[in-house]
Amino acid sequence: MKALFFILLITVTAFPVLSQERVQMHFNKNEIRLNILYLPAGYPELTYERVLGGKSAIGISIGGFIGSKKPNYAKDILTSDFSLFPFYRYYLGKRTNSGFFVENNVNLFYRDDHSDENKFGSGLGLALGTKFFAVNSWTMEVVVGGGLNFRQQSCEGSYYCFPDMFPRLGISLGKRF
Asked: Which domain of life is it from (predicted)?
């Protein structure tokens, strides 16, 4: 009788454990950001990022000069009039897509070199950065890096040539949704 009672007790207590459903964590997988570093110089850069998993994401940044005729600090740093940055990131933080990250990117760009030659170029680069979260899915990100420009030409003192390297810099504010 004791053995039957013991088997019945184990069966009754184990039954709810077997009927439990897996709990899936739901989090926002999309993020849009604005790079505020270049914004005062007339070079807005918008970024869209999609979370692939807990540690990786892909995205694209689009930026370009709009209505900026006078020289400014951004023209001294940036090597293109318009750029498109597809990227892949691997995050090393404990939270989902946060903390320190390593980025691999491709730069597709346009630069008016005041000639009749092809004005488009591309390059491959790396960047390092960190992402912080605030309340209500707001984010802040800092990224620093650069890459090798595949379209190289001799400058010979000209401002309008294509430099050997391109920068990947940013201080961005964004929102996850």
From this structure: Bacteria
Integer Cα distance of 165 and 123 in angstroms: 8
**Structural domains counted in the chain:** 1
Q: By CB neighbour count within 10 A (0-12 exposed, 13-18 middle, 19+ buried), where does 146 fall?
A: middle
Residue 128 domain-assigned (yes or no)? yes
* pLDDT for the residue numbered 16: 55
Q: Considering only CA atoms, which of 48, 45, 44 is closest in space to residue 32?
A: 48
Residue 151 within a domain:
yes
Mean pLDDT of the 66-83 span? 70
